Amino acid sequence: MLSFEHQPPRHYLQQIQQDVAQIFRPSRLDLHWQVMQGGVQPDSFSRAVVVEVRGRCGFGRVAEVTPSHEPHVRLGWTAVNDGEVIPHVTVDCDQIAAAIAGARSQGFPRPTLPVLYHRLIARVLAHELMHALLRSTDHNSSDCLKSPLRVVDLWAPARLSAHNLEALRDVGRAKQWPVASGPWPATADQRPF
């Protein structure tokens, strides 16, 4: 269930959904996307994750933001309360744009930046969805659970490890997981990407 601070264009949203679906495709997990809009109740699914998208999304933001040269920028996070992973993730489009702007200022070829931007936002979203779906704060060397992720890691398409694929398949087979509801506690421990 997607919640946007600033609604992106429809084509942008479709591209991100396709990119994330491509990452998850080997798991055979069937992802359904629904934009949350004022007072509309979400459809019922066996497992739901609320995705809060902050900032303005789109490659055009790269030219508008101050480049980030920090090695550990918080691009996204998953809510954790009393050690329990909550099915609520946040993706920060402004920070993602700043990370790509930083890559631009480090000499990455200009024609590759839109591709890197879209790969980064899809990878951040997939990373946080993995935490929420697997109810885990663990990181590993798998492309989607690697932390920190470097821009250079985006040259290759994302791959899920065999262990992650099996865990996601188990999620797909699970039944009776409650649909997420909000609001989530403001004091939740937020794990950086």
Model description:
With 193 residues, this protein is of the alpha/beta class. It is built from 4 helices and 5 strands, in the order βαβββαααβ. The chain has helices spanning 10-24, 93-105, 113-134, 162-173, and strands at residues 2-4, 50-54, 76-81, 84-92, 189-192. A 5-stranded mixed sheet has the order 1-2-4-3-5. α1 (10-24) packs across α3 (113-134) and α2 (93-105) crosses α3 (113-134). The relative contact order is 0.20.
Write the layout of secondary structure elements.
Elements: E1 2-4, H1 10-24, E2 50-54, E3 76-81, E4 84-92, H2 93-105, H3 113-134, H4 162-173, E5 189-192
Parallel strand pairs: 1-2, 2-4
Antiparallel strand pairs: 3-4, 3-5
Helix pairs in contact: 1-3, 2-3
Which features characterize this protein?
five-stranded mixed sheet; disordered C terminus; globular; alpha/beta; 5 strands
Sheet having the most strands: 5 strands, mixed
Helix content: 25-40%
Order of helices and strands: EHEEEHHHE
- The structural class is alpha/beta
Mean pLDDT: 81
Number of strands: 5
General form:
globular
Q: Round the Cα radius of gyration to an integer and report it.
A: 16 Å
Query: Span from first to last CA?
Result: 20 Å
Identify the strand order in the major beta sheet: 1-2-4-3-5
Q: What is the beta-strand fraction?
A: 5-15%
Spans of at least 5 consecutive residues whose pLDDT stays below 50 are 176-193
Structure annotation, total helices = 4
